[in-house]
Task: structure prediction
Amino acid sequence: MRMSFSSDTKNELTHDRAERRCCRIAEIAGFIHAKGRIFAQGRDGFGIAVTTENPAAARYLKTLLAESLGVSANLIVRKSGFGSGGRAYELRIRPGKDAERAFAEIGGHSLPLERDAANGNDASRSGSRAEGISRAQSKRIGDKKCCRKAYLKGVFLGAGTVSEPEKSYNLEVVCRDESFAHAIRRLTNGFTGMRARVRKRRDGVVVYLKSAEQIKDMLNIIGAHTQLLKFESAMVLKDVRNRTNRINNCDHANLDRSLAAAAAQLANIDLLRAENRLDELPGRLPDLVSARLARPEASLSELGELLDPPLGKSAVCAGFKQIAAFANAPHLFTI
Result:
């Protein structure tokens, strides 16, 4: 089964791990800020849950958490109406030292609060500790360009999609609130030439790019270089197809006009023949009649080349205008 361009892009990103620890933490932060939520577990405190439909992305985040933060996350596979074979992949960082370490490194960025159905607790009503975590400001990504790129990579892995370039040009990130969407827009537009926009949808707020060139730049920013080459190849093929279609459409239109003109010329010739007036045609007009009767489908240029000596397209066109006029009034014309 062929995977989508979006899935292939995420799979490529999971095979390119940043060398710097700061960039790996930025990736984790972007992923969790985009798709994470806080859950309360009784009196044990608060943990973090992250859900994705891409198994490679889930494994990648689990590995990053372990290797970069020393944080253990449980991977749970659930049934889902979307994603890979109807499965959703959930990483849960349990309350305790692991969750505290993750919060300390990436901040909460006002992560949404998940109701704890098992214990009947709602984290949003569990006291100031929940409020402190959920409203914690994200750690600054910093002025390092590499970390800003890594953060956007994490955001795309968590909540991004890119359409099949053969069909349309669209890259978007679904955000749960307007504040986060505008933060991603500003971060994206901090790179030269980027013009990301924000729009509201039923399933949330979307940051999107529609320009093929900007989508190429974004693929380069997040490190999907193989997919970037595929995107460019698809752009070239699409452009060639569009050009071919335009040329074919133009050729068809020209052919239609030529056939209509030829039909009108033959009608005039038939009229003159029915009235026994073909012999009255002056100059080289009889040669044009003979050429048209021999080649009903030929263009004016092709008819001109059949004559001896040949005539140019404009002279042939003028000749048939004279034949049309002669068919309607028996005046003498010469060419």
Q: What stands out?
A: Residues 116-139 have pLDDT under 50 and may be disordered.
